[in-house]
Amino acid sequence: MTTIVFDLGGVLIDWNPRYLYKKLFTDEQEMDAFLNTITTPDWNEEQDAGRTLAEGTALLVAKHPEHRELIEHFYGRWPEMLGGAIQGTVDILTELRASGRYRLYALTNWSAETFPIALEQFEFLHWFEGIVVSGTEKSRKPFPDFYHTLLTRYQIEPSQAVFIDDNERNIHAAEAVGLHAVHFQSPEQLRTELAALQVLA
């Protein structure tokens, strides 16, 4: 293997809307209902795929005017959803970088408007040779063209690359374009799998 490709949210960065909405709801069931039926992952992914935050917010407010304020907080207070770095994975990235044996990239579903906040907050994002951001490319995982953007832009041979993601859907899509994929569940499990691939000692 010559190349390691990381997903970011859920692998290197702990991002969760619950961190914000726990401050806004007193009832956890009400919060879960709001996050599962109104500010849904599918809705958020449209912003990840290039729709503007303003447009995404306006569409949802028009549909659920009674929740205007709570909906507007999703991006208005977005930094409060960042829980910090997933240190065990950052340690693995640190080791891979120090070894000098691998090209390191990131492939992420992330809004182009919020990604600069993460870039400012997490120093390790500057260690990658390249980061392909869905919001900038107007496409996202699991669509094959998004993976091909990474492979062609950085001349990556899929059979020589390991792709790490916490979403099983994205893992299957990576395998379909010829990448060796590891379904991330914890830093410890990732370390074990990379050791089995002889990527880590």
UniProtKB/TrEMBL annotation:
UniProt xrefs under InterPro entries: HAD-like_sf, HAD-SF_hydro_IA, HAD_sf
Q: Which domain of life is it from?
A: Bacteria
Cross-referenced Gene3D superfamilies, in alphabetical order? Answer: HAD superfamily/HAD-like
Transmembrane domains' residue ranges: none
What PANTHER family does the database record attribute to this sequence? ALPHA-D-GLUCOSE 1-PHOSPHATE PHOSPHATASE (PTHR43611), FLAVIN MONONUCLEOTIDE HYDROLASE 1, CHLOROPLATIC (PTHR43611:SF3)
**Protein name per its UniProtKB record:** HAD family phosphatase
